[in-house]
Queue: 3 jobs
Job 1
Amino acid sequence: MPELTISLKSSRQFAVLLCSAHFVVACILWKIDWSLLIKLSGTGLLAISLYYYLQYHALLRSPHSIVSLRFSENGSNCSACTRSNEHIDFIIKGDTFVAPYLTVLSLKSSQSFFSRNLVIFPDGIDAEKFRQVRVWLRWK
């Protein structure tokens, strides 16, 4: 397969999903019979978590957010470019999830011990490129 390059943009669907999930957890936290200090601390941690994940994954405003991907011809490697213009080479792991409504890329870098997951919603990418990425990942 020829090389494929995609540009990512912020995803409103992902932002709404993150906000909803954090709100539900906050509601559950406040329903539990714990002290006010624990509830306030938990809510504060949830707010920090929401801010971080919105900036880093959904809105792509963090300097370390991946804003473009280039898939190589061999199908198991890709190169990512972050907002701070850092280029990172990744190997696409086998536990990558591909569906018509969502793609979760599981990426492993030789520079890091931990894997990195990239969630791509259909509104965060051009529709034709989203289709091409799904086909590319299914046939890799």
Note: The longest strand covers residues 102-109.
Job 2
Amino acid sequence: MYELDFKPHRVCARNIHVGVSDDGSTIQNVEFTGGCNGNTKAVAKLVTGRPVDDVVELLAGNNCAGRGTSCADQLTLALKQAQEQARALA
């Protein structure tokens, strides 16, 4: 498993910790620090075990309170970064 700590921007969450499979294809775990506790826990549960590409397609561009991004959107950036780095190491 490849793990990454991602510092999100323009959202309430202060960190997004993601783990993806060694080949970067599947989400192994997600943990938010900060943000709306119930919502971030729900998002983490919903995406764990799913393909990275499917989650990125589904959540990319999600907007919170006119910020132009959201915790879910920032998660997609973290997942793409983790996927790229995992594949580079594979």
Note: Helices lie at 37-47, 52-59, 71-89.
Job 3
Amino acid sequence: MGLSTHVLDTMNGCPAAGMAVSLYTTNSDKPVLLKSFFLNADGRNNDGLLIGHDSLAIGTYRLVFDVAAYFSAKGVALPTPNFLNHVALDFGVASATEHYHVPLLVSPWSYATYRGS
């Protein structure tokens, strides 16, 4: 059923529009970049699914969210070095026939994730 993500900015109470995100597969010794994109006004990938239901494979993946650049662009005064720079979420896909939704709730100082629907 595919792979999707959604990011909410919990500091400002809005979707994280404009945040840069990269998706990797981590099945080998070196992560392999599958795609990079910026989140739309709803905090989602403009193209919808990151991996379509016909292409999702069992294995391990990594989503990397550029949190520091996003909050810096919003005018948030961040310390040097930033507490959070990039948030990397490593997760596994055990069934290629299910939908995997990986949301991120984030502020400059904390984040949470879960397997959504």
Note: The longest strand covers residues 2-9.
